[in-house]
Amino acid sequence: MLEKDIKKVLVSHDEIVEAAKKLGETLTKEYQGKNPIFVGILKGSVPFMAELINHVDTHIELDFMLVSSYHGGTASSGIINIIKDIDQDITGRDILFVEDIIDTGKTLKSLKELFEERNAASVKIATLLDKPEGRLVEIEADYTCFTIPNEFVVGYGLDYDENYRNLPYVGVLKEEVYSK
């Protein structure tokens, strides 16, 4: 049913699993003996974070933040609202933000600066998707699985008006769906 709204598949489920496996191996080596906190940015990061942690073979802690900047549209409003903050003190801790997509970069830039002010030992970013053409601020992920063109994508956690998150792949949404 949802497939009828998809123009094309950009990243298949199998490609996502393979990328998460490779990144998990890298993170296992990088964070061995450090017990980092992986901070998922709700809601979009959940499928990717769930897949990623299956492939990390060292101690990690999980936490989540709910941050809003889209407010139901297709473009970031640029206003960052922290709706749910993490539950623990991060002083001296290694932090890895896990994100579904970096588009404008405003949200992650703000969060990275906030966590640096909170005296984290390190703050890094892992993203499933990077859309550099959408960037409005200077920020780069430390770990990127896929770089994508400047198209409106949904699936695997990414939504349009809270829908399509449950697609098992990342696809380009047909323009007629969101231009109504």
From TrEMBL:
GO terms for biological process: GMP salvage; guanine salvage; hypoxanthine metabolic process; IMP salvage; purine ribonucleoside salvage. Its EC number is 2.4.2.8. NCBIfam families: HGPRTase. This is Hypoxanthine phosphoribosyltransferase. It is found in: Cytoplasm. The gene is hpt. The lineage of its organism: Bacteria, Bacillati, Bacillota, Bacilli, Lactobacillales. Purine salvage pathway enzyme that catalyzes the transfer of the ribosyl-5-phosphate group from 5-phospho-alpha-D-ribose 1-diphosphate (PRPP) to the N9 position of the 6-oxopurines hypoxanthine and guanine to form the corresponding ribonucleotides IMP (inosine 5'-monophosphate) and GMP (guanosine 5'-monophosphate), with the release of PPi. Signal peptide: none annotated. It comes from the Bacteria. It catalyses: IMP + diphosphate = hypoxanthine + 5-phospho-alpha-D-ribose 1-diphosphate; GMP + diphosphate = guanine + 5-phospho-alpha-D-ribose 1-diphosphate. Keywords: Cytoplasm, Glycosyltransferase, Magnesium, Metal-binding, Nucleotide-binding, Purine salvage, Transferase. It holds the Pfam family Pribosyltran. Belongs to the purine/pyrimidine phosphoribosyltransferase family. Its cofactor is Mg(2+). Pathway: Purine metabolism; GMP biosynthesis via salvage pathway; GMP from guanine: step 1/1; Purine metabolism; IMP biosynthesis via salvage pathway; IMP from hypoxanthine: step 1/1.
